[in-house]
Structure to design on (555 residues):
């Protein structure tokens, strides 16, 4: 070694030692004040980030990142893409794959499908596998335009039939993403940019048969096959109910196992979702299952697990900007889920609510006064402060909720007065009028073929106003893909607004409530955790009724 290299090596060693000592000093600084109370650490947030986000270029559009994720751009750890390796860095990273096949869940709503995606990512990262999404072949796809999320303008091939004529749709754009991939962009740190495994020997039908054969077993099974690069791959196939079954019956207990302290499984799991070494160390020493799952939720949210495709972000921005919600001021939000949820697992909570108020007796009364939890229950959750609260309402029953608002007293400025106090509300709904999910529209009674087709697509006209059904799957799979896409954009926009609200009031009986909680959590400062602080901080979320525990991420 030359003398110059020796000097540089000694200098590098001294710098490394100084950094280590500085790090130790920081972690052992007794002058650090105790952690602030949970609520004091919460910022008052507007929808738009405080710092301007760099616009992304997609075709001729400039994509605002404020509309591409459930978390604000400055809360996303963009360095994760440099810390977590991809196949370009290590060839063997595609030797172990979780092949996620979302088609079997495609008739579910947004919350259910997105939660399933999170659950798949949770299992993939825990097991050290790259997660590759495999969509069904177009020929076997039941949905028009080959996606349950409808068709943006890019899904079509277009051309002019005459030089001065308009651009007309001629056929599908067969290279455009299908299925769930039309909605979400898989992060490179999750997929490791691995291609579809074993293409030469396994098509979709064969992978699906392998998945079905391995369903509902005691332990998940896997397939060994040869990748196109000649390396052998260990592939585990999962979809929908498979994920829920194996998580509940097998992986959950492994994830919360505390027999080994610190847990090296927890340590490496955290690293795989972008944790820094000191954060992975925190994860490895968390004993409470809720703390461990919450910390993982915070890491997943910070790593931008759910990132929407650029055309989704573009159209969600247009939708949100046409609403009456100011995007540069703090606001609160209500998620009022009625419809089909109250016909199933929510029904007992409705009965309990009215029974507690002496307005329902199971032995004497045939039914409750109304078959839902009223708006007043949600409003009673707010602290009675003397101010006007701007509140966005996302609901599948807007007409009834608006009627409930109309029954409440108003001040001189039109704000809703609550409970004879000085607390007042200014309510804002989304720009689309949505049909309550429980309303059954008989499309066969339409007066014309055009009206029937419009009805089946999820739209219909009443009192000269156009209404759109709320649920993503409200129309036939082969119905109008434009109507399906409109419902898709409206739902994603609502979820983004709820996720970024200063205070969110909802419930965990709905997939939306459980999903959004994940993206309202962030890791606490590691030094504060070391001194007894809670592992995560959360933008305030209160439960209006029903179950009080959200459960693990994706559940």
């Amino acid at each position: 070694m030359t003398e110059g290299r020796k000097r540089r090596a000694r200098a590098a060693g001294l710098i490394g030692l100084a950094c280590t000592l500085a790090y130790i000093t920081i972690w052992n600084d007794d002058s650090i004040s105790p952690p602030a109370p949970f609520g004091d650490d919460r910022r008052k947030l507007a929808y738009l980030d405080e710092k301007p986000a760099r616009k992304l270029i997609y075709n001729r559009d400039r994509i605002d990142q404020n509309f591409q994720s459930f978390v604000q751009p400055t809360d996303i750890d963009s360095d994760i893409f440099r810390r977590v390796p991809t196949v370009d860095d290590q060839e063997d990273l595609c030797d172990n794959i979780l092949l996620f096949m979302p088609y079997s869940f495609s008739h579910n709503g947004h919350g259910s499908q997105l939660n399933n995606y999170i659950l798949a990512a949770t299992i993939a990262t825990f097991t050290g596998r790259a997660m590759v999404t495999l969509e069904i072949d177009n020929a076997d796809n039941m949905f028009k335009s080959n996606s349950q999320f409808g068709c943006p303008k890019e899904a079509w091939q277009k051309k002019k039939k005459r030089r001065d004529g308009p651009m007309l749709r001629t056929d599908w754009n067969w290279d455009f993403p299908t299925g769930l991939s039309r909605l979400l962009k898989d992060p490179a740190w999750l997929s490791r940019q691995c291609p579809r495994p074993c293409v030469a020997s396994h098509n979709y039908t064969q992978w699906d048969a392998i998945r079905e054969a391995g369903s509902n077993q005691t332990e998940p099974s896997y397939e060994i096959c040869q990748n196109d690069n000649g390396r052998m791959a260990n592939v585990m196939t999962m979809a929908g109910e498979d994920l829920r079954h194996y998580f509940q019956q097998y992986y959950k207990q492994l994830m919360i196992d505390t027999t080994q302290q610190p847990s090296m499984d927890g340590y490496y799991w955290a690293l795989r979702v972008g944790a820094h070494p000191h954060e992975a160390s925190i994860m490895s020493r968390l004993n409470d299952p809720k703390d461990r799952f919450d910390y993982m939720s915070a890491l997943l949210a910070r790593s931008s697990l759910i990132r929407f495709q650029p055309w989704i972000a573009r159209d969600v921005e247009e939708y949100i900007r046409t609403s009456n919600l100011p995007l540069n001021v703090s606001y609160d939000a209500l998620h009022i889920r009625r419809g089909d949820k109250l016909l199933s697992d929510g029904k007992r909570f409705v009965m309990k609510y009215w029974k507690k108020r002496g307005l329902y007796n199971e032995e004497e009364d045939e039914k409750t006064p109304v078959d839902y939890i009223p708006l007043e229950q949600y409003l009673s959750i707010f602290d009675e402060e003397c101010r006007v609260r701007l509140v966005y309402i996302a609901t599948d029953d807007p007409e009834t909720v608006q009627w409930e608002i109309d029954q409440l007293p108003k001040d001189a400025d039109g704000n809703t007065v609550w409970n004879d106090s000085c607390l007042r509300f200014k309510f804002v709904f989304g720009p689309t009028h949505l049909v309550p999910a429980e309303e059954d529209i008989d499309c066969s009674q339409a007066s014309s073929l055009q009206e029937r087709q419009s009805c089946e697509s999820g739209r219909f006209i009443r009192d000269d106003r156009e209404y759109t059904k709320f649920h993503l799957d409200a129309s036939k799979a082969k119905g109008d893909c434009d109507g399906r896409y409109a419902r898709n954009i409206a739902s994603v926009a609502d979820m983004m607004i709820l996720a970024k609200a200063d205070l969110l009031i909802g419930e965990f009986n709905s997939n939306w409530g459980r999903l959004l909680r994940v993206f309202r959590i962030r890791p606490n400062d590691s030094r504060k955790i070391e001194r007894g602080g809670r592992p995560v901080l959360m933008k305030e979320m209160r439960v209006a009724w029903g179950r009080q525990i959200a459960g693990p991420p994706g559940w």
Residues 172 and 468 are 24 Å apart (CA to CA). The first helix runs from residue 3 to 27. The chain is about 35% helix and 15% strand. Confidence is low (pLDDT under 50) at residues 1-43, 433-441, 453-468.
